[in-house]
Task: inverse folding
């Protein structure tokens, strides 16, 4: 194979800085996939005298592992690490050659404490923008601790294996042969999987914060930056850093940035936050909030944080159909991201539930991979932009079903179909399917606030005033979880700034 010139120039730059020799231990045979991997490795080894190839029996064919000469290989790539995974390959090369991984010191100490042999496997799609974070984190853990090893498995080359293991979403992570997680995870969450523990010791001696920001998306980061720049002692409680923006492959409406991707944007935002002293507590979820002399936020692990003011920026999550079978088959055919999980349904029959822009864009994307795509819309008309509807009408392998009330998702160990009712005729229909992509919008992550004194509207959104204040004095809110008229990244960032300034004014007066 021939790498694109852009990739070759990118790789050449990093190969020059390798700190030691690297051996590609390759398990190949005469099949077409092996020839493809062999050509990839040969093309790369020709670019540097520090690289070589030797035959080795590994867990899969075709695959290759990275190691310094004479050392054990703990990072393995089954298939080709191209597209989104090419940077994972470059980083693995550098780190195996001796470059110290960039990871928080406390996280590194936790990784180094793991004293048992464990092996991770991650099934990925090369079009998935969440998969590289998992692959790179597990590779870093393998570099930092000789007890840890990791294999990236490219779904296209190992489709039969993936289907036999019922892996119908990416990234899906296995630990010592058992499926343990699916979807985006932070390195802190991966370390917890490895350690099998969630300690509250780190929270026992926390000081009282002037401002505690709950949430790590655009609004939360904006609120954090504005708070710390006001000289406030700021803490940041984060479930998944970056929030829902991390699921957006392309962003074209950030003023001053013609194009970026969600992961890149939030990576830049995190770097900005890290320029200041902020106590960032990752992989933690709030369970309840109450006000005494101070505002107390209880975490799901039992710890309690205290603050003089709190900014809630907890974001949104995918809206569910709430029909039988949806939970049972989630990640087993029921998924949300056409861009990430679409390649797992090549040549299959799938359905997209929803009629607005994201659903129709997803259906168009899926039409290039799936055998047939059914769009099920509750109303009598699609709500997507006309230009998208026109594109759908030109695709012969898309069928639009309107007035469809989804009733049940069926299956055994995976999805095999969906039942819906025509709300005009009351006739019940069943479609044989391999996958269901649920694209019916988003809901705020506010269920944990229902028993609090923070007012929610009928949509579960936090009600705020023009200073970002909620009904509970000292508690502010920002972003898509609030009753803002529009949900946009740039609006969330602005509302985060508003809430931080509101909290600053509140603290001056109290």
Result:
């Amino acid at each position: 194979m021939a790498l694109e010139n852009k990739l070759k120039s990118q790789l050449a730059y990093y190969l020059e800085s390798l700190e030691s020799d690297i051996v590609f231990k390759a398990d190949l045979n005469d099949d077409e996939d092996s020839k493809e991997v062999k050509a990839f490795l040969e093309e790369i080894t020709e670019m540097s005298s520090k690289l070589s190839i030797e035959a080795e029996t590994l867990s899969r064919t075709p695959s290759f592992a990275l190691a310094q000469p004479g050392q054990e290989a703990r990072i393995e790539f089954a298939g080709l690490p191209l597209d989104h995974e090419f940077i994972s390959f470059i980083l693995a090369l550098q780190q195996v050659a001796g470059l110290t991984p960039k990871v928080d010191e406390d996280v590194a100490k936790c990784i180094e404490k793991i004293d048992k042999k464990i092996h991770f496997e991650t099934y990925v799609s090369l079009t998935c923008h969440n998969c590289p974070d998992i692959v790179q984190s597990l590779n870093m853990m393998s570099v930092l601790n000789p007890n840890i090893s990791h294999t990236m498995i490219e779904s296209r080359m190992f489709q039969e294996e993936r289907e036999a293991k019922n892996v119908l979403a990416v990234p899906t992570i296995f630990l010592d042969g058992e499926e343990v997680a699916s979807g985006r995870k932070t390195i802190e969450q991966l370390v917890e999987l490895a350690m099998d523990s969630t300690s509250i010791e780190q929270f026992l001696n926390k000081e009282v914060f002037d401002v505690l920001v709950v949430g790590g998306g655009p609004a939360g980061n904006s609120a954090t930056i504005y708070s710390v720049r006001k000289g406030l002692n700021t803490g940041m409680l984060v479930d998944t850093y970056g929030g829902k923006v991390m699921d957006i492959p392309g962003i074209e409406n950030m003023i001053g940035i013609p194009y970026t991707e969600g992961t890149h944007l939030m990576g830049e935002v995190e770097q900005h936050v890290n320029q200041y002293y902020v106590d960032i507590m990752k992989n933690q979820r709030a369970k309840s909030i109450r006000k005494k002399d101070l505002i107390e936020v209880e975490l799901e692990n039992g710890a309690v944080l205290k603050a003089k003011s709190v900014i809630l920026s907890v974001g949104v999550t995918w809206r569910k159909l709430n029909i039988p079978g949806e939970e049972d088959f989630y990640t087993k055919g029921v998924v949300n991201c056409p861009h990430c999980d679409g390649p797992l349904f090549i040549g299959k029959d799938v359905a997209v539930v929803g009629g607005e822009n994201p659903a129709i864009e997803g259906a168009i994307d899926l039409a290039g991979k799936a055998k047939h795509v059914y769009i099920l819309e509750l109303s009598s008309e699609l709500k997507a932009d006309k230009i998208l509807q026109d594109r759908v009408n030109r695709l012969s392998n898309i069928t639009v079903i309107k007035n469809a009330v989804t009733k049940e998702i069926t299956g055994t160990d995976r999805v095999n179909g969906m039942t819906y009712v025509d709300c005009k005729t009351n006739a019940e229909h069943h479609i044989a399917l391999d996958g269901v992509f649920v694209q019916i919008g988003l809901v705020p992550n506010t269920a944990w606030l229902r028993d609090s004194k923070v007012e929610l509207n009928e949509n579960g959104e936090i009600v705020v005033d023009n200073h970002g204040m909620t009904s509970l004095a000292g508690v502010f809110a920002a972003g898509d979880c609030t009753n803002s008229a529009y949900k946009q990244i740039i609006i969330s960032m602005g509302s985060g700034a508003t809430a931080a300034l509101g909290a600053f004014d509140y603290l001056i007066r109290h």
Q: What stands out?
A: The chain is about 30% helix and 25% strand.
